[in-house]
Amino acid sequence: ALERAYQRTAPTTRDEEWRFTDLTPLYQLAFGPAQPAAAPTGTQLAGFQVSEAEVTLAFVDGRFAPALSRLGPATGVTAQSLASAIQTEPDRLRGALGALAPVDERAFCAVNTAWFADGALVHVGRNQAATAPVHLLFVSTQDEVAVHPRVLVRLEEGAQATVIEDYVALAGGAYLVNAVTEIDIAAGARLRHVRMQRESLAAFHIGSCTARVARDARLDSVSVALGARISRLDLDVEQAGEGAEIHLDGLALIGARQLADTHSRVDHAMPHGTSRQLHKCVAGGNAHGVFNGKILVRRGAQQTDSAQQSRNLLLAPRAHVDAKPQLEIYADDVKAAHGATVGQLDADALFYLRSRGIDEHTA
Length: 363
Description:
Elements: H1 2-7, H2 24-27, E1 32-33, E2 55-60, E3 63-64, E4 70-71, E5 77-81, H3 82-88, H4 90-93, H5 107-115, E6 119-124, E7 134-140, E8 145-147, E9 150-155, E10 160-169, E11 176-185, E12 190-198, E13 204-213, E14 218-225, E15 230-239, E16 245-254, E17 259-268, E18 274-283, E19 288-297, E20 305-314, E21 320-329, E22 335-344, H6 347-354
Parallel strand pairs: 1-8, 2-7, 6-9, 7-10, 8-11, 9-11, 10-12, 11-13, 12-14, 13-15, 14-16, 15-17, 16-18, 17-19, 18-20, 19-21, 20-22
Antiparallel strand pairs: 2-3, 2-4, 5-6
């Protein structure tokens, strides 16, 4: 992976996949590795807890924090530190860790693969159902550092689970989180994956999530971007078996000078697949939202039913959104549709509220 990282140049706006996202502010800074520091207290993290979760794995500046984690008693699911699993159960990871992450295509993904120190492993056994959500909490506490968290989620045949992947900040300055997630869903399994990004407003967040969905399996994905000066999520989902269902929902809620970029790719490689995607962006101030969604229907993937929508709302005159939905179809018996809208607040609706005594800001 390190060789791949050295071979690839850092992405710039001259690259088609990055033409709306200028990483110059990131490249102008120098980040080092996170240093050992006092762990935050449970009180400091109280606002980030998920009360429904029976299992919480907490990571501070990329390192597992056992004192802040809760490891039971959820049934049907194994959740542990990835660094620990590499040492104690290498056979469980062989052929899985690194199998989906596109290190040949993405420089940031290759850097994560080369330099990650720890992360989370979530494994659900055959026909097992996790009784409550699994919460993976990644906390940044230091400025001017780069961390590379890693997540591996594996569901065996017939398994069911909900995983919440949560990136939060106690630091207020600039730092880099370069995260990679791999998700492998076996036949007949069902996963609900929620990804929340609420970093410092001066931070940089680069995320890659790659999922493989087997026969008759289902993925429900929700991604939310609230924080970071510049954030980018590459979401790639492969329909690897007939009858698989893929549902992707996304929201970017940004203001000031934030930039939030979501690039998604749904690869229908087998027949009888279904996918639905709805991405929304609400931009205020001088914020810039980007959505690039691609649906690929391969030759032979007949009876595919796929639809994608991008809906965007501008709250200020200088806010803007670039939306680029794409279809690439090589089969002839398919249903595929896409659309994008960008608009402002409805002037008639505002007038209606103000004419009834509501002030402009509240309206």
